[in-house]
Structures are given as structure tokens and as C-alpha cells.
Amino acid sequence: MTMIKSSSFRLVLGVASCLAFTPAVSADQLEKAQAIEGKTTQEAAQSQSRINRRADASLAMRQEIEQIQTQISNLEIYRDHLQNLVSNQQVEAQSLRDQIIEIKETRQGIVPLMYRMLDGLEQWIAKDMPLKAEQRQARLEKLQAMMGRADVADSEKFRRILEAYQIERDYGTKLDAYQDTIALDGRAHQVDVLHLGRVSLVARSLDGKKHWVWSTRDSLWVSLDASAGEAVDKAFAVAQKQVAPSLLSLPLSANQGVKS
After folding, report:
1. Residue 116 and residue 1: Cα distance in Å, rounded?
2. Radius of gyration of the chain measured on its C-alpha atoms
3. Going by C-beta distance under 8 Å and a sequence separation of 6 or more, which residues neighbour residue 180?
């Protein structure tokens, strides 16, 4: 805009110079020159205004283009992120499908295994010494009934069966005393029973006067003499925490018998 005004000034000076060297310049001609100068200045200002507006529009458009380019760049990054997520989800979905197939195959194999484990547990209890026999039989029957229940998951069924096996294993390592009913001479008698693992299973009358040992060979209770009874009483005292643990001498169930 300044440059255009300078040109106008030079034009005015030029006109003035021409007038100065013109011998007779009328007032009308001077007014016309001034009008031309004003019009030129106005047109120059309008042109500069248009240039400024176009420059501003161009700058605004450039800024908008930069914003759009930034948005496009962000969208491309987000698109790549979503593609990675979709790819990962597809891998996980395939992994889940494979796991479902494996679970079905495992379930088809685990159910027969549980039934075989229960059969084995039943046979073991039947052949084992009568160590907490009623309690063990009740646990077995509960497990057998559980297998037909739809509201118990297979995983829970398997856990309980393993738990029963764990209890059976623990019987072989504990010294424990409890009350039970045993068959003696065809009659049921309430007695105190003690077992040292599965090595020795002995019984004592509630009055403490009679003692018996289970014969694994003959599958019956065998009477013990008084000397053996003292050792049994000591073992009962240890099991019931009436005395401090000490060396025990108990009759072995495997070595007992009445048959030749």
C-alpha cells in the first residue's frame, strides 16, 4: 500500500512538473489531475484491501489444510492401532476356540477317569482294614451321588475325589484315636479305636480292661494279653495328648492271626 502511494506521489509530482512547465494550466485541468490522483489512490487502497483479504483467506486455508493433515495423520495412527487390536483379538479368539476344543476333549476323558477313581476307592475301602469304615463309606457314597448332579461342575467333582484320595493317604501316616463300633463274636461293641498309620489297628473296651488288634490276614479282631494291653494304653495316652510323645510298641496288624 505504501508503494502504491509513492507511485501516486510521483504521478502528482510529474503532473505538477508538467503544469509547472506548461505555460497555461487551467483550474479545471488541475482539478481533473487531483481527481485522477484521488481515484488512483482509492483504487490502490481497494486493491491492497483485496490483496490483504486474499492473503488472510490463503493463510486461513493453509491453517485449515494443516489441521486436516494433522487429523488425517491421527486417523491413520488410530486406524493402525485398531488393526493391531483386531489382529490380536483374532489371535485370542482362535486361542479360545482351541481351548474350547481341548476342554471338550479333556472333559470327555476326565469323566470316565473320575468313575474309575471312585471304583478304585470303593475297592480299596472294601479290602482295607476297618479304619473309620463308616466315615469312609459315607464319604464314598456322597461322592458317588455327586457324580449325577448337574449343579456341580466337573472340576469341583474332580477336586472332591482328589480330596478323598488325600484323606485316604493321610490315614497311612497318622496316629489317631476315636470311638467306633466293632463286631466281636458276632456282636457289636462300642470301643475306643487307635491306629498307627495302616501298620497297627487296635481297640480297647470303654472300661479299659480288654484290648484287641485287627488281623489283616484273617480280617477279624484278635484279643490281646495284658502285657500288650499296657502298650496299647500308652499309645492311647499319646494319641489323646495326655502324655508326651515317646517310643511306642504296638502289635502289628499284619502279624496277627488265629488261623494256621
Report:
1. 103
2. 55
3. 132, 133, 134, 190, 191, 193, 203
